[in-house]
Write a structure and sequence with these properties.
Elements: E1 4-13, E2 16-32, H1 43-48, E3 57-62, E4 65-68, E5 71-73, E6 80-83, E7 90-94, E8 106-108, E9 113-116, E10 119-122, E11 137-139, E12 144-147, E13 150-152, E14 158-160, E15 164-168, E16 171-181, E17 184-188, E18 191-203, E19 213-217, E20 220-223, E21 229-231, E22 240-243
Parallel strand pairs: 2-3, 3-6, 4-7, 5-8, 6-9, 7-10, 8-11, 9-12, 10-13, 11-14, 12-15, 13-16, 14-16, 15-17, 16-18, 17-19, 18-20, 18-21, 19-22
Antiparallel strand pairs: 1-2
Amino acid sequence: MGKHLRNERMMEEDRSCVCIVGAASISKFITVDQKGHGNFKTIQAAIDSIPDGNQQWVQINIKKGTYREKVHIWGPKPFIVLQGEGASNTRIDWNDHGDTRNCATFIVYANDFVARDITFSNSYNWNYQAPEVAEAALVGGDRNSFYRCHFIGHQDTLCDYLGRHFYYGCWIEGSVDFIFGFAQSIYEKCTLHSNGKGWLIANAKKNQNSPTGFVFKYCTIRTSSQGTYLGRAWNEWSTVIFFKTYMPANIQPQGWQGWYASPNE
C-alpha cells in the first residue's frame, strides 16, 4: 500500500448498499509500543493526541502485544486507521460487562474509520457458565470498515450498532446473539464461529422502510454444538441475508428461532 489507504466505502444508492473502493493518502503515522519504542505506550493515548475535527487520515501502527485497555474513538475524531501486526499478534482486551452502550472493549462512534489485523476481545464471560452482555466491540460510526480482524467473546460479541459498515476476512466468535444491532453492513469472506449452543445473529430495524440489515457474502459458519441457530429476529423488521455462505450440518434445520415473536412468527 505504501502511503496509501485502500478505503472501502459503503454508499447508499437506490436504497441498496454498494462498496466503492477509493484511495486516500495518509497524512501522519503514529506508533504505539508497550515497550516504549514508539510515540505512545497505549492506544487510547495515541487516539487522544489526534485533534477533534481532524480531516486527514492518520494511521496508528500498533506493535504486537496484548493491550489491556478500553479504547474509545468518539464522533469528533474521524479519519483514523488502526493497523496491527496481525490478529494473532496484536490484541486489545478488557473484561467489562452489563451495559450494552458502554461495556465494549472497543467503541467507535467516529465516521470514516478503518481497522486492520487486530483482535478485539472481551474476556469477562470466559469462565462463566451463564454469560452476560460483554461486547468485544461496538461499531457506531458511518463508513467504518474492518479487515482481517478478530472479534472474540461469548454474549453479544459484536454490536454492529449504527451506520454503514464493511467487514472483510474477519473472524467473529461467540455463543449468544454474537452479531447484533441496527447497522447496514456487509460481511465478506468472514468466519462466524459459534463457541456454544445459541444464536449467531440478532438484527433489528428502526422501522419497516429502513435500508439497514446484515449481508453475509461468501462466509463460513463454524459450530461444534448441536442446536445452534442462525439467529433470532430482534423485531418484526429484522433483515439478514446469507449469500453463498457455507453452513455446517449441525445448524438447527429451521434456521431461525422466534424471540418474543407472537403474533409475528
